[in-house]
């Protein structure tokens, strides 16, 4: 089945380090970042081979957050770092677990989350913290650069998590969350253009993992060629989310559920420098000729 797609538009402002999102566009990637908005292109063939602003000043940061940040300073020499973690656990038990005992006892027997979240392992982008997921609400897997490999690739913990979440837990939504200043994406973008999987040192676990997103790298280097390296990385952070969304549809049991409208897949982008979150949903439409068209719907920016 051939898949033709176009998803959500973004543009890169050459005068700043921010990625700007036009409000009245439908496509998501283009080719000339110098003269017009840059659109992350999202395409696949019959074999499924590829293809935000809130200025926060310190005076506006809630006092509670300031207090928590002060509380998180590095412990003094000789201090047991687990004392703080123990205090947090006991606070959770008293204020959350015991106050919602019936709910947690129910979760002890089974889980039925509506969401599966694929997010980066970066310590600054915990999905439960930024999106408010509570225990039992989101089945989560985190890896370097929030990458989803293709179905045809070898085994991985991300693929195992997808299989369990979709086939056993039967989640109704999969959300892939990218983020600003991603180290994994930066590692991907610093790889040589002609470097292949065979060229990578087998001892470099990071490179062997992020090379899965090489299509996002090449597209970003082409679309944002006139911009700085940092801006190219920002472009790739969103492009890689779309590549992961494309790769999700290479799993037959995911594509079947998306086709039957029992599963929805979504992209997200968290910019922690501006504290904004961009979200979009993949719209999958079957055509009579046996092809499928993928576009975006319900795009929004929370700021």
TrEMBL record:
Its cofactor is Zn(2+). The keyword Cell wall biogenesis/degradation does not apply. It catalyses: hydrogencarbonate + H(+) = CO2 + H2O. Zn(2+) binds at residues 120, 122, 179, 182. Keywords: Lyase, Metal-binding, S-nitrosylation, Zinc. The keyword Transit peptide does not apply. One of its GO terms (molecular function) is zinc ion binding. It is an enzyme of class 4 (lyase). One of its GO terms (biological process) is carbon utilization. Binds 1 zinc ion per subunit. Reversible hydration of carbon dioxide. Belongs to the beta-class carbonic anhydrase family. This is Carbonic anhydrase. It comes from Microthlaspi erraticum. The lineage of its organism: Eukaryota, Viridiplantae, Streptophyta, Embryophyta, Tracheophyta.
